[in-house]
Specification:
Elements (H helix, E strand, L loop, with lengths): L5 E6 L3 H11 L5 E7 L5 H5 L4 E3 L3 H4 L6 E4 L6 H10 L3 E5 L6 H14 L3 E4 L6 H11 L6 E7 L23 H17 L4 E7 L10 E7 L4 E7 L9 E5 L3 E4 L5 H6 L18 E7 L2 E7 L7 H13 L7 H20 L3 E2 L5
Parallel strand pairs: 1-2, 1-4, 2-3, 4-5, 5-6, 7-10
Antiparallel strand pairs: 7-11, 8-9, 8-15, 9-10, 11-12, 12-13, 13-14
Helix pairs in contact: 4-5, 5-10, 7-10
Length: about 350
């Protein structure tokens, strides 16, 4: 089947657009990047000559050439921009976090259904080597019945941000839990479904912090306990992931290399893109075919581009949306429940998921 490129617009040209979106929109034949919203600069136009810069988001709404709008502007704009774009008959991708409230997310879910337009959230952490590898291990039941899953997204960042400072201001949708917690929650929901209860500890650890910069969240699935953790004062990193089952364990260190390579200006092309070096493989210690093994488990290839390949199939061929608005709603609802649990200092039931 011949490829019919989707004519696409980016809303803002900050770190997210430059790193995670534009490199794929300009190398995948399924897309044609034609518009970028930049209020004060024309950086995208200089880098991508086919792009026309517009200074206002509203200019995209009446532009018949634009089929898909990708919203990477600050969190407070996600809901109003997504709503306006859907109402204007555009397909929409929203950077995480999807919205600031579950009520906003639900409204967008319903609007997307009425409009018949695709609405998706950019949960690219489904397309990293470690997540794909863990999913395979779980599907093959190599650890038996899982009873503990621990996920860390730690960093050492003691000083205030100099770029993207809005993420640390006391405004709706800011803080590390909305930022990084969205990824970890989404991964857990994909792997394990809906939890029964949640117990959260959200804190401000740095003396200047206006919003949460630490979280430890337990999701109760009955036999399985999931722990999600992030701290900004972790100088020496421990395991990124730990999975423990009734017959074995899997331990994974290190970070998927795609983000680092994209920030360095590498284009996401070629067969070697997304492959991890052997020294970064995780350790599996379990019983396979009756034999006790303790060895490295080869990482599957990661590729953020698969998000956009799947999205193309949804828009052009009517395939189900992989990262759907309903799934995105559930992530935001878990975030709201975590804040409630932390404030009450107690475990609470998980309710209100779609």
């Amino acid at each position: 089947m011949a490829i019919n490129p989707i004519r696409t617009a980016l809303v803002s040209f900050g770190i997210s657009s430059r790193t995670f979106h534009a490199p794929f929109l300009t190398t995948l034949p399924e897309y044609q990047l034609i518009r970028v919203v930049e209020r004060k600069t024309r950086d995208s136009e200089a880098k991508y000559p086919q792009v026309k810069v517009v200074s206002q988001f509203e200019a995209l709404l009446n532009d018949a050439k634009v089929e898909l709008v990708i919203i990477t502007s600050p969190n407070e704009t996600h809901f109003p921009y997504a709503k306006a774009a859907l109402e204007a008959g555009k397909h929409v991708v929203v950077e995480k976090p999807f919205t600031n409230t579950a009520a906003e997310a639900k409204e967008l879910v319903e609007l997307s259904a009425r409009s018949g337009k695709v609405l998706s959230v950019y949960h690219n952490r489904r397309y990293v080597a470690d997540f794909r590898t863990m999913k395979e291990i779980l599907e093959k039941k190599l650890l038996g019945d899982l009873h503990e899953f621990v996920s860390h997204y730690d960093r050492y960042r003691p000083d205030p941000r100099t770029i993207g400072v809005w993420r640390e201001k006391a405004v709706p949708g800011s803080g590390v839990f909305y930022d990084l917690g969205s990824h970890l929650i989404d991964q857990s929901l994909v792997l394990f479904g809906h939890p029964k209860n949640i117990n959260a500890d959200l804190r401000k650890q740095k003396p200047y912090s206006q919003v949460d910069d630490y979280f430890a969240v337990d999701l109760d699935y009955g036999f399985l306990k999931v722990t999600l953790h992030s701290g900004m004062l972790i100088r020496e990193m421990g395991p990124r992931y730990m999975m423990h089952g009734t017959i074995g364990s899997f331990i994974k260190n290190g970070e998927d290399l795609q983000e680092e390579r994209l920030k360095a200006g590498e284009l996401p092309v070629g067969e070697q893109w997304g492959h991890e070096p052997e020294e970064q493989y995780g350790l599996i210690h379990t019983v396979i075919d009756g034999e006790l093994v303790r060895r490295k488990y080869p990482s599957l290839r990661g590729d953020f581009g698969d998000y956009y390949r799947n999205l193309y199939k949804s828009i052009r061929e009517g395939a189900p949306v992989s990262e759907s608005a309903a799934q995105a709603h559930n992530v935001i609802r878990i975030i709201e429940l975590a804040f409630e649990s932390s404030e009450k200092k107690q475990s609470i039931p998980v309710t209100g998921l779609l």
